[in-house]
Amino acid sequence: MIQWEDRFRVGVDIIDIQHITLLSLYNRLQSSINGGECEEALRRTAKDLIDYAKKPLVEEETLLKRYSVTGLEEHLAEHQEFKDYVLGLYVQLSFADEYLLAGEVLEFLEKWLEEHIGQSDKTQAEQLRALGIR
Ligand SMILES: [Fe+2]
Q: How many whole angstroms from 116 Cα to the centroid of ligand 1?
């Protein structure tokens, strides 16, 4: 379980709420694996991550584009990597070992949390905050 902590907070409500949702997907997957329901949990997580890539991630992009934040291109490239990864999950689900794949998904999300949310999102959100967006 990863608890939501202040160090993950970027200070723009709509973005923080999305990140809390993502963290709950992580925690749900982890507890399902521990409960031995790996395959079904992975399928559900893959679907929810694709939904996340289609809506919350795109909403964040719209906000960053609207205010033309510095570092936008790199930021969008990181989002694209996220989208590519989660879209590839369905393919992987059909042949990969589900426990190995679940472990990989958890690692991917941990990295995303530390490196994208903890660094990129924070940096870009600072610019939004400077413009008075909360
Ligand atoms: Fe982002």
A: 6
Q: Would you state the structure tokens that stand for residue 42, as one six-digit string?
A: 């992975």
Tens of pLDDT, residues 32-72: 998 888 999 999 999 999 999 999 999 999 999 999 999 99
CB within 5 A of ion ligand 1: which residues?
Answer: 121
Q: Which residue has 């906000």 as its token pair?
A: 63
C-alpha torsion sign, points 123, 134, 81, 86? positive
Of 78, 96, 77, 84, the residue nearest 49 (C-alpha): 84
Q: Nearest Cα to 86, choosing from 101, 97, 98?
A: 101
Q: Which CATH superfamily is domain 6-130 in?
A: Hemerythrin-like (1.20.120.50)
Centre of ligand 1 to C-alpha 2, Å, is: 19
Mean pLDDT within 111-118 = 97
pLDDT in tens, 72-90: 999 999 999 999 999 999 8
